[in-house]
Every structure is written in structure tokens, then in C-alpha cells.
Write the C-alpha cells for this entry.
Amino acid sequence: MLKALESRFSKLGGTMRAIPLPPRKIIDEKGELTAFPHGEALHIIKRPEAPFKVVLGGHMDTVYSEEHPFQKTQLIENSRLLGPGVADMKGGLVIMLFALEALERSPIAENIGWEVFINPDEEIGSTGSQESLKQLAKENHLGLIFEPAFADGALVSSRKGSMNYAVVARGRAAHSGRDFEKGRNAIAALAHFIVQAHQLNGRRKETTINIGQITGGGPVNVVPDFAMCGINIRSTNSEDFHWIQDEFDALIHQNKCEGTTLHLTPLQSRDPKPFDEKSQFFFNILQNCAEEENTKLHLRPSGGACDGNNLCAEGLPVIDSLGAIGGNIHSSNEYIEIESLVPRARLTARFLLALASQVPNLNTLPT
């Protein structure tokens, strides 16, 4: 995928490089913290000396493994394309590319500089890309993210933040018949924690705790000495993540007993992405461009996180979900509306040209 992107985006004439990313920290099947390699990210920069600079973000990865049965695209009624990652977010990459090609044909393109950053790890939380995204936020005035729009064409305004944890329980193995009393059941210890963690749901508004994965044990005639679960937290409020951490620490302490231990490991995290005055300022310009295209844009919050969260956390205003209109993402019925590609590319191109034509006025950006 990286090679295909390099070939197509090279026609934009920017300075291109593949960026190695640091490995991802994961908890393996034995409950040990280990490193897992990432692919390379694609970075392209053009006119870094321009008075106004935009970073355009996207990702080349999908949620579908090589073994997943959903591997091929299928055209439905000549208007809808089903396929893995077609909406999230190959369609967005197409829109980004054609919008930049249109910008580069304009004489006012010289007024605006841009950077493209396409990473290979967004679907797992941009674990290796975080530092690159932080640096891009510092070097640009605006972020554009090409995640898919909602199925009705609405754009994402704010996004919840996301935090992942692993909880590893360790006990003492023993024969379940002959020496049951000598064993300490790691699954039972973890189960107590899981029930109490789940009961934290509803304690904070719009904060959710999802026990999304559990593993451990083996033959049923053995008292299990290992179990592990994965937990995902979503919230609109950064302070709630600190509250969750404190609550989890308290539960770990409460569930201490002889012969068993529970260990909590924070993994990937993204801060919430508010839709602030700076983002509203640029959305107003985008809305004017949409009206010139004889359409009107609508905004809606989302519980999903993306690289816009990472950019926004560094203070960069972000316009989100400029990608294709589609639906059923992360499922075997993922699709894009093919007829959305050209209008969305035209809208982004018009928006970039509007920014290039009014660079002095962008100094009125709210602080």
C-alpha cells in the first residue's frame, strides 16, 4: 500500500519520504509487555515557507487482517462499492489526492504550503505515529482529516477521547481435583475486577467502559494461573480518564488476596477532540465553499477517535471527516457511495483555494 501511495502522490511534486515508526507496545498472550513492529508512514511536504500551512491526514491501514474473509470489492448497482477499507479510508485518500492536484493547477497555490501524512497504524490508535502527529501540529496552521463522513453526508464535529488498558491476573496453578485448595484462580480474580469495572458505567456522563477482550486458562482440570482482559474507555472529558485510572487503581487494591495479583497497564490513548472556536472559524469558510457547490454541510459529534484527536490535543484547529460518504465501517458490509467522490474532492479543492486566496484574513483566527 505504501508503494502504491508513493507512486500516485509523487505526481504532486512535493518532497516525499517514508518514515520508520517506533514499535508498538502490546501485552502478549503470556501477559508480558512486548514490542511489535509498525510499517512506515508516508510524508510529503510542499512549500514549507508559505505564509499559511495545512496538514492533510489519512491512514493506509484497515481493521481487516490478511485472514479476514472480507478481501475483495464489489460494485452494487453502479453506485455503491463494497470492500474492506473503501470508506475508512481509501475513499478519503482519493479525495485528498485529487483535491491537491486541483490546488496545484492554480496560480494561487503558491500562497499555501501543505504536508500530507498517511500512517499505517491509525486503526490501532496511531501508537507509532503520535510523535510525528505532534510535530505536524506544531508546524501547521490547520489540520484536515479525511476520515469518512456520516452516511447522510454530515461531518464530525467533536470526538470522544479513547484509552485502552490491559489487566493481567496471575494466580497459582494446581490440579482441580487433587489439590484444588492449593490453587489460586486467576480467572476468578479477574472476573471480580471485570464486574466492578463494568459497574462504573453510568457514573460519569458520556463516559463508557467496555470490556472488549478476555483470555486465559486452559484445561478445565487445572486451576488457571493466568488471565487477561482488554478495556476501552471513551469520554468527552479528559478529566474522566484520570477518574477512571483512580477507580481502577482502587479496584486493583480492593481485589488483592493471598496468591493472586492484578496488574493494570495503560496502552494507547487519545485525548478528546472538542469543536472549538478556531475549528468553527475554518468550518465557516468550508460552509461557504459548500454553498458555492450548491450544498450545505451539517455537523454531528462522534464517539470514535481519529488522528484529528492527536492534532487537536496540540492546539491545532481541525476539520474532520472530509472523506467519502459511506457506511457500515469496520464490518463486512463496509461501502462508499461512489458518486460522493467527485463532490467531496471539489469541496476540498475549493476550500484549499479559498484559504490560499485569503491568507491575510486568516490572521483574525480566534485565540
Notes: Residues 2-160+272-364 form a domain with the Aminopeptidase fold (CATH 3.40.630.10). The helical segments are 2-9, 86-104, 130-139, 186-198, 238-254, 277-292, 307-313, 341-357. The longest strand covers residues 161-170. Residues 273 and 312 are 6 Å apart (CA to CA).
